[in-house]
Every structure is written in C-alpha cells, then in structure tokens.
Specification:
The chain is of the alpha+beta class and about 280 residues long. The protein folds into two domains: about 160 residues, Trna Endonuclease, Chain: A, domain 1, CATH 3.40.1350; about 80 residues. It is built from eight helices and twelve strands. The protein has a seven-stranded mixed beta sheet with strand order 1-2-3-9-10-11-12, with helices on both faces. The protein has a five-stranded mixed beta sheet with strand order 4-8-5-7-6. Helix 3 packs antiparallel against helix 5.
Length: about 280
Amino acid sequence: MSAKEERVKATLEKVLGVRVEQHDDNSRPSMYDLEIRYEDRPWAAIEVTSDADERALSTLGTLTKRGRFLWQSPRLGLTWGLHTRSDVLVQALEGVVEDSLAAFEAGGLRAVDDDTFQEQLAYERFAGQKLDNAGLEAWRALSAVGVIRASASEAETPAIAVFPELGGGSWDGGADLVVDWIEEFCARPASADNLAKLERSGAAETHLAVFAHLSDELWAVCSAIEDRPGTGVLPSREPQLPAAVGNIWLFTTPSRGGALTWSRSGGWQRVSISG
C-alpha cells in the first residue's frame, strides 16, 4: 500500500468509523485501490489518484531514494543549504555541487544567488566576453541544474542540504475554486482510467480520493483544501462529476493541514486528519 493510500485509509477509518482494506493486490489488471468493509451494508470502492507536477514528484522521489536531502561533505569547511527548483536535476547537481561550493568557500562567499554576480554579468554583457571568475563559473554550474540560491553556516560536520521550492502564491479565502479544479481534473483524459475502475467495480458506493500537489499552479487550491486559518470555509456549489463518482476526498501533498470531502447525499464537509 502506498503512502497516499495509507493516508486515505487512515482518514476514512477515522472519519467514517469503518474498516478500509487494500483491494488492488496486482493479482489482475484494472483493480480499484481500496475497499470499505461495512458491517451492515455492501462494500464500497475507493480509487486514489493525484494532480501533480510529475517532474517535481520525480525529483522528490529521487532525492529521497538517494538520501540527498542532507549529506555530509568532508571536502567542505561549511554546511551549505541549497534552495532549488522543484524539478532540480538531481544527478547533474551531484556532479557539480561539491566543486562549486568549494569554489565559493575559496572565494570567501557564504551566500550566493543571481544578485551576487550582477556586476560581473553586466560587464560580460557589455564586453561580449566571459570573465575568468571561479565563483561566477561555479554559480553558473549550479544555476544550470536548478539551484536558486545557496547559503553557508558554521557546523561541526560540514554537509549539504537540499531544499526544493514547492511553490508559492496567494489565496482569496474562498473555496469555490476547489469545485472548478476537481471538475476539470475529472474531465481530463488522464483521469479516465480511475473513473473506469470505479465504474467497473460494481459497487453501489464509490469514493475518489485526489491529492493536490503543492505547487505554484495549485497553491490556492491547496490553501482552500487545507483552510489553515481555520475559517471553516466550504465551496458554495456542488461539483458536477461523472456518475461513477459518488464521494470525493481531497488532500494535499505534502500535507500541511486538513482535507475536504463531498458526497452526493451530504454535500461538502471539512475533516480533520490529525492524530
């Protein structure tokens, strides 16, 4: 069972007071993911999916697999924090990062971004030729693979930490944009397989759980799903969804708070996923 499926299972068991089990065991194709086992009525089918920047998810997965969010670097004298794009090129970063950071240290640099070499870059544009500057070349190498800024601090054990930027944006405090998003998401060709699994399940009750990946594009949607200010805001209209979907559960990843759920019989509700 994936981490997202585990989260859906834990949430539904807590909110609905039911037992949720894995259904897709890879024993045959096109199986829906989870199943609610009621004591007093027939089972229900659950399908789990995501709306995500696949490049960003691949990057996060690679960093996790390689243990590259933080690693020791005896070659360096300081600990460096690298803020990167969410789709930073991990293997390419590994190939240039220690040489680049060593060049910064040799030049006495402890905080580097595009502004650090503004004068040198302006001169290059004016003169039409590159400067022989080790620090500038090191920054070019890091910037090319997705580093936004780098900063150093004293540490007993020098290390390199990578912090992918997950996005940013603003939110007007409303929740109707969640309805627009989930309607559009379900209408995409990429969602057809999830909907087909629910339709073929034969279940009288179906649930679609969707994870919105925190990014610039979905920042406001994630903010509305989570409602971190705790206003309790809910969408003001019902979503127009395919007949195969009887209930929806909306989460964010990474999780920063609550979730939203909707059913044809009960409308919109907020649920707590803590504890």
